[in-house]
Write a structure and sequence with these properties.
- This protein is of the alpha/beta class.
- The chain contains 13 helices and twelve strands.
- Strands 2-8-7-6-5-3-4 form a seven-stranded mixed sheet, sandwiched between helices. Strands 9-10-12 form a three-stranded antiparallel sheet.
- Helix 1 runs antiparallel to helix 9 and helix 10 crosses helix 13.
- The N terminus and C terminus are likely disordered.
Length: 447
């Protein structure tokens, strides 16, 4: 122990160094990028940790730690099924949404190819045809573009309506060909929050399939990527009428793994594995199961089943307060709403807007913010920060407004006070940019 009165040693130098200048604590930042990812709920972390401690065994083993792991996986499968009103035996665990989407698409290609011989004279093409929208996640869009490049499949990208922001059912049906095997349309868009008319698409495709069966044509399957919708609104596979549904854990406060729902797995709906190995997940997705992450995913699903209405109501109230405060501070004429389409339902937590002004590009506004943590669009497009969002352009948002876009997505714990602090932060950021003489605004505040 130092003697009383001994000079204190500064961390930067020797004894007697002058004390550091006092710095005020950094301002607490507010995260509003929950559409990109969400933190783990405390209960989810506890479930993961408990599985690591108590269920470290191989789920295929018969000793206690293995049986415990198997029980945890079974319970998680049941929780996921309950969350979407499906059957546990129709759930397959995957590494995440990208794998789930790829598994569906490649599986449908394989199924089409295996059955091609018997229907060659029935189809006008000898390769499978897919229908999707122009605003899908990259794990769907790029996979399909790759298949086209390799001349493995044909794809129709259906534009969304500039009036509704949705893909139109009639446009989907008009794109169907004899070789069409899959329609894949996301349930909710990750940038605008627009809810797509998946139930109507499924209903019309089901009716179409009855006529196709009479003509000897293969049925058209329907897939939806529900990554953005889960945890923000009720998702019911019976109401949706889909054959495949993608589940992504880190979008609803779970770990970064996922799952795939397949209606009547292996019986009503075909699924072909992309991987081959030890036979786990009934051979559809082999590999020793990641028990701790599956435990966390199951707990996250359980929380959604129990609290979804409360989550939705809270996020909608906070989102609405955010938009009201933006109008109050900046005026309606200063803001262009990129996610409001009359008569179209959207996610309760998503606000996409642009400030009007040549100096107010979204990335520049965020660079000036001291409090707000958000994005200009999808996280998977973050490497193209100078390009306007293709999703917004597809929705008919003008180029200059798409360039200025900010996507703010609130979460379960976002408060009204958080909103007030963010709006004040944006107000100061815009003022700094508009006071700058250059077309690109001033240097960031910390340079």
């Amino acid at each position: 122990m130092d003697a009383a009165g001994a000079p204190r040693r500064d961390a930067r130098g020797g004894a007697g160094s002058p004390p550091r200048r006092h710095r005020s604590p950094p301002q607490r930042q507010v995260y509003m990028d929950y559409n990109a990812t969400t933190p783990l709920e405390p209960e989810v972390m506890q479930a993961v940790q408990a599985a690591m401690r108590e269920a470290w065994g191989n789920p295929s083993s018969t000793y206690p730690a293995g049986r415990k792991a198997k029980d945890i996986i079974r319970a998680a499968r049941e929780n996921l099924a309950k969350m979407i009103s499906g059957e546990p035996q129709d759930i397959i665990f995957t590494s995440g949404g990208t794998e789930s989407n790829n598994l569906v698409i490649h599986s449908v290609v394989k199924h089409f190819q295996e059955n091609q011989t018997s229907r060659e004279d029935k189809t006008e093409h000898h390769k499978p045809h897919f229908i999707t929208s122009t605003v899908e996640h990259d794990s769907v869009r790029l996979t399909l573009e790759h298949l086209v490049k390799e001349d493995v499949a044909a794809v129709t990208f259906v534009s969304v309506s500039e009036v509704s922001g949705q893909v139109e059912v009639d446009d989907v049906l008009a794109a169907v060909r004899p070789a069409t095997c899959l329609v894949t349309v996301m349930l909710a868009n990750n940038e605008t929050g627009v809810i797509m008319p998946v139930p109507a698409i499924s209903q019309h495709v089901k009716a179409l399939n009855q006529r196709r069966a009479a003509s000897g044509l293969p049925p058209v399957l329907v897939h939806t990527d529900a990554a953005q919708a889960l945890g923000k609104r009720r998702v019911d596979v019976e109401d949706l009428g889909v054959d495949f549904l993608t589940i992504v854990g880190h979008k609803f406060y779970g770990p970064r793994i996922g799952a795939l729902y397949v209606r009547g797995l292996g019986e009503l709906t075909p699924l072909h594995p992309m991987l081959f190995g030890g036979g786990q997940e009934r051979h559809f997705r082999p590999g020793t199961e990641n028990t701790p992450m599956i435990a966390g995913l199951g707990k996250a699903a359980e929380l959604v089943s129990e609290n979804c209405e409360a989550y939705e109501a809270h996020m909608e109230a906070v989102r609405d307060h955010l938009e009201e405060r933006l109008v109050a501070e900046f005026g309606e004429k200063r803001i262009h709403w990129n996610s409001r389409f009359p008569g179209t339902e959207r996610l309760p937590n998503t606000c996409n807007f642009s400030f009007r002004g040549p100096q107010l590009q979204g990335r520049l506004v965020l660079a000036q913010c001291q409090t707000l943590l958000a994005s200009v669009g999808a996280a998977c497009h973050s490497g193209h920060e100078d390009r306007p969002s293709p999703v917004l352009l597809s929705c008919g948002i003008p180029h200059d407004m798409a360039r200025n876009a900010l996507r703010l997505s609130v979460g379960r714990g976002t408060t009204m006070a958080d909103v007030d602090r963010v709006v004040e932060d944006l107000k100061q950021a815009v003022a700094r940019l508009e006071a700058s003489p250059g077309p690109d605004g001033p240097l960031p505040a910390d340079t």
